[in-house]
Structure formats: structure tokens, C-alpha cells
Design a protein that fits this description.
Blueprint: H1 4-12, H2 29-96, H3 101-121, E1 125-129, H4 137-155, H5 160-172, H6 193-212, H7 217-224, H8 246-261, H9 272-282, H10 289-299, E2 307-310, E3 315-321, E4 330-333, E5 345-347, E6 356-359, H11 367-373, E7 381-385
Antiparallel strand pairs: 1-3, 1-7, 2-3, 2-6, 3-4, 4-5
Protein name: HD-GYP domain-containing protein
Pfam families: DUF3391 (PF11871), HD_5 (PF13487)
Domain HD-GYP: 116-311
């Protein structure tokens, strides 16, 4: 059968049944057209379904990214607000501590209590790098030292009461500088012998103020020891080893670290990685070995604020370290195709194929990466609990 005309002739013969060979027959044009149309429709439907699925995946990725950005922003805003509140409180304390020491002590105790309770009762805490923060060095140094000392004390197993005393000592360790002339409040290499002796007096002045504030004896002892070194090279008493209490040894280490990162002259600042490396390589004998080991475990090889290059050559800045995973910090990467205000934090623990190749000075970054990552001139830290994005709402 090759045509409709042949079929019409056969029908005209009046035969009830006719045999034919399908393999030797042609398909009717309309039937062929129907098959082609059906195939085309099937292909179009498949393509449309694939497009819809791709659009749904893209929409879900956008929603997830937006949720992650929102979670990051919420956490950072909370950290920066609390840091700023603590800075303002320290300034207020300086203003009133000489005229009304007991009144000055109460809000400090309340603040430290909140910190300790949050660190002990709200799960795992990470050290978080803050944005460029306005503030004078005295106030920022006080808050930085308090946060890091409390986290280190927790890592070393101090009790709640011990952490309270450590926190008060850390927050107020330099309070005696309020009685010093401005020119000697921060140690400089070019100090004369007389200026250096005057600078050292801030320790005794701080103890005097601390007693007037009615601080606990362990807090006063830690304040007294915050410039002592376990090798006997510190001041005011050149103590050695176990003559220093645990809180004093913690405070001496953390105080030195923050002064290396945030010196009075910004041009002399070390990166957090450089500061940690210097302490370990050259000053290790000055600090308690248990405190130093715990400090390195907690801060990681690349502490928050370190500028790094990954093994895939991308540049980034470390913004958070979890002490249980110090080699896998969280970083913000230079992504030219993503606006810097939308940059996501990458958790290297969840990217096993990636790692850090090296740390570098901010000045060695390519100009585009330097502008994007904007390394801080002053390092400011706070603590945060684990950040989890809210799940995006299901599409309607």
C-alpha cells in the first residue's frame, strides 16, 4: 500500500478482509504528521520541565544565599553593638572611677557576668573579627583583652567564679593609667628611664583603684601580674613561673598579643598571624606553656584578621575561628563577580578540598583584593555563638 487511492480501490471491491504487508506500505501523511507533532510536543514538554526545575533550583539558591547573608549580618550587628556598648562603659568608668569607685564597679560586674553566662550557657562560642571600629585605643584594648582572656580561660577549664574574677581583671587591668600623664600611657621604645618607671606605676595605681572598687582578691592579683613574665623579665616584681596565678598568666599573654596587633602607632602593627608567630618563636619562654598552647589552639594558626591565600590562589581574610577546628577557619574570599557587601563567609571545614597556603601582609595583596577585603588597621574581637541561616520559606 503506497497511497490513499489504492485503499479506496480496495474498499470498492466489497471484500470483508484484505491482507497487506505493513513493512512494504507507506504511513499515511496525516498519521505521520500526528506522530511528528506528538514527538515535538513531548520534547517541548521535557524542555519546559527542565527549565522550571532549573528556575526552582536557582530560586532556592538565591533564597538560601539571602538567608545566609541575613544570618551573617544579624550576628555581626549584635557583636558590634555589644562591643560598642562595652567601649562606652569603659569610657564612663574612666570618668567616674576616681570620684565614685563603687558606682563604677557595678556596671562592669554586670557586663562581665553577662559575658561569662553567654560563654558557658549558650553553647560553643567562636572568636569573631569585627568591622573597622571607631574608638580610642584604651577602651578597645580593654574590651579585646576581656573577650580573648575569657575565651582562653574557658578553654583552660576555669570555673564560673574564676572566669568572673578574670573578666573583671582583664577589663580593668589598665585602669591605673587614668592617673598617668597622657604621654606615658602607652609604652614606646624611645622612653627615657624616668618615663619607663612612670609608665610602670600604672600597675600599682590600678591595684589602688581596684581596692577602692572592692574587687575580689583574685581579680586584684591578676591585675597585679598582667605585666609579669614567667621567666622573671616582667614587672613590677619580676616573678617567675608558679609565683604567678593562672589568671595572671592568661592576662599577661593576651595583653601582649593585643598590644602587638594594636600598638599606639598603627604603622608598627603586626598582623594577627605575625603576632602569634612572634610570640611563639621569640617570646615563648616569657609565657606560661599551658596558656600559650591553649591560646594557639583557640586562635588557630591564622587568627581572625589574618590575610591569607588559599591553595587555589584566591585571597581572603579570616573572620572567625572555632577553637575545636583551628586549621579550618571561616574566611571571606575576594570574589570579583560578587559585590563585597554580599560576600558570604566560607567555612573551610565544609570545603575539604580547600585550605590555606600562606598568610601575607595586607600591603602584598593585589589592589582589587585589598579594596574588596579591606583589612582592618585596628583589630577588634568579640564572640559569637554558631550562626545558622533561617530556612527560606517554601515557594507558594
Amino acid at each position: 500500500i503506497s497511497s490513499q487511492k489504492q485503499i479506496d480501490v480496495i474498499r470498492g471491491l466489497g471484500k470483508p478482509q484484505v491482507r497487506y504487508v505493513p513493512a512494504k506500505s507507506d504511513v499515511l501523511p496525516e498519521v505521520a504528521d500526528q506522530g511528528a507533532t506528538s514527538g515535538a510536543l513531548s520534547e517541548a514538554a521535557t524542555a519546559e520541565l527542565a527549565r522550571q526545575e532549573a528556575a526552582a533550583r536557582e530560586r532556592e539558591q538565591r533564597q538560601l544565599r539571602a538567608a545566609m547573608l541575613a544570618a551573617q549580618e544579624r550576628s555581626l550587628v549584635v557583636c558590634e553593638r555589644r562591643f560598642a556598648e562595652s567601649v562606652r562603659l569603659y569610657r564612663k568608668t574612666l570618668d567616674i572611677v576616681q570620684s565614685n569607685p563603687k558606682e563604677a564597679a557595678a556596671p562592669c560586674m554586670e557586663m562581665v557576668t553577662t559575658y561569662v553566662n553567654d560563654m558557658l550557657d549558650k553553647g560553643e562560642a567562636s572568636i569573631r573579627l569585627l568591622s573597622e571600629t571607631a574608638g580610642d585605643k584604651s577602651s578597645m584594648h580593654s574590651v579585646n583583652v576581656t573577650i580573648i582572656a575569657l575565651l582562653l580561660g574557658k578553654a583552660m577549664g576555669l570555673s564560673r567564679g574564676e572566669l568572673m574574677d578574670l573578666g573583671m581583671a582583664a577589663y580593668l587591668h589598665d585602669i591605673g593609667k587614668v592617673k598617668l600623664p597622657d604621654r606615658v600611657r602607652w609604652l614606646e621604645d624611645n622612653f627615657s628611664s624616668a618615663e619607663y618607671r612612670l609608665y610602670q606605676e600604672h600597675v600599682a595605681q590600678g591595684i589602688s583603684i581596684g581596692r577602692a572598687m572592692e574587687l575580689n582578691p583574685p581579680a586584684l592579683l591578676a591585675m597585679l601580674h598582667h605585666h609579669e613574665m614567667v621567666d622573671g623579665s616582667g614587672f613590677p616584681s619580676r616573678l617567675r613561673g608558679d609565683a604567678m596565678g593562672t589568671s595572671g598568666r592568661i592576662l599577661a599573654l593576651v595583653n601582649r598579643y593585643d598590644n602587638l596587633c594594636n600598638p599606639s602607632r598603627p604603622g608598627a602593627a603586626l598582623t594577627p598571624h605575625e603576632a602569634l608567630s612572634l610570640i611563639f618563636a621569640q617570646f615563648k619562654s616569657r609565657f606560661d606553656s599551658a596558656a600559650l598552647s591553649a591560646f594557639i589552639r583557640m586562635m588557630g594558626v591564622y587568627p581572625p584578621g589574618s590575610v591569607v591565600q588559599l591553595i587555589d590562589d584566591r585571597y581572603g581574610i579570616v573572620v572567625s575561628v572555632n577553637s575545636s577546628r583551628p586549621l579550618k577557619p571561616r574566611v571571606v574570599l575576594h570574589e570579583p563577580g560578587v559585590p563585597k557587601h554580599e560576600a558570604l563567609i566560607l567555612d573551610l571545614e565544609k570545603a575539604p578540598q580547600l585550605g590555606i597556603r600562606r598568610s601575607l601582609k595586607p600591603g602584598n595583596l593585589p589592589p582589587a583584593a585589598l579594596d574588596y577585603l579591606a583589612p582592618r588597621q585596628r583589630i577588634a574581637y568579640f564572640f559569637e555563638q554558631a550562626v545558622e541561616p533561617e530556612k527560606p520559606a517554601a515557594p507558594v
